[in-house]
Amino acid sequence: MSAPVTGIPLDESAILAEAEATTARIVAAREAIAKIIFGQEQVVERSLVTILSGGHGLLVGVPGLAKTKLVETLSTVLGLSERRIQFTPDLMPSDILGSEVMEQAPDGSRAFRFIKGPVFAQLLMADEINRASPRTQSALLQAMQEHHVTVAGQRHDLPKPFHVLATQNPLEQEGTYPLPEAQLDRFLMQIDVHYPDRASERRILMETTGAEDAEAQAVLNGDEIMTMQRLVRRIPVGASVVEAILDLVRAARPDTAKGKYAPAIAWGPGPRASQSLMLTVRARALVQGRLSPSIDDVKALAEPVLQHRMALTFAARADGITIRDVIADLTATLG
């Protein structure tokens, strides 16, 4: 294992013992999720990595791929309180955050009371987030970044942990409002949900169309999740992995772009992308039962972490170049 780059002494034996115990708990959680969600192992892993890294995820896929079911299952298995918001063009900020109402006491006195909105949950599902107006999207932005909301000048803290898993349909663009770059950057990862393979779809047919459906069972709880999140931040990262992250992120920016697609990049990821990779490679290593991340983790997470933080020039898009092409070219140069 490469030497950690931090100057703080680490009790590696204690971290190792805690990581081994945590890995066993994560394995149990993944097995519980696999009883409900079939054939989406990579999506499940990336969703767990997002939560263990303390971030928010954007699930992108066509309808009918169990995105909603995944979030419901995660909330149950991880022991997190869950709320769902169906985003529509007429959704108002108060429908998400909550509002103040006037109440009259028996003695005739009146006072305002704050009624919490659905954002006050540990795991919030924002369904079809791009269908809400920019005004409503911006209301969610503060909650995602600051973990609190402000209503009538009063601050209200959100529960801990707090995570947003938003869904987005990539096909239907009529009646949608594209997410602003600032809000996209708040999502730790964009998790693409693809069609299941034939064997998984056969299992779906056999196990979900009978008289009884399997039900998710709680394995973890919120306190355990926060303990795991703290462990992720203590996992040592080798100097070679840090350099790979820096090389990758900086090569995806117009002014320092590298590779054959360098002229195609209009704008690229900022330092938050580097931070996201540092956290997610640690979490992926933990999920897979390893104490330290490798360059392979950087390669595996480059696309979900970077793709929503980049844009290509008009000429590049006209030539059929995609962001995935650019990221694949950049990751191929890593050690």
TrEMBL record:
The organism's place on the tree of life at top rank: Bacteria
SUPFAM superfamilies: P-loop containing nucleoside triphosphate hydrolases
Residues of the ChlI/MoxR AAA lid domain: 263-329
InterPro entries: ATPase_AAA-3, CbbQ/NirQ/NorQ/GpvN, ChlI/MoxR_AAA_lid, P-loop_NTPase
Molecular function terms, GO-annotated: ATP binding; ATP hydrolysis activity
Keywords: ATP-binding, Nucleotide-binding
Family: Belongs to the MoxR family.
Protein name: Regulatory ATPase RavA
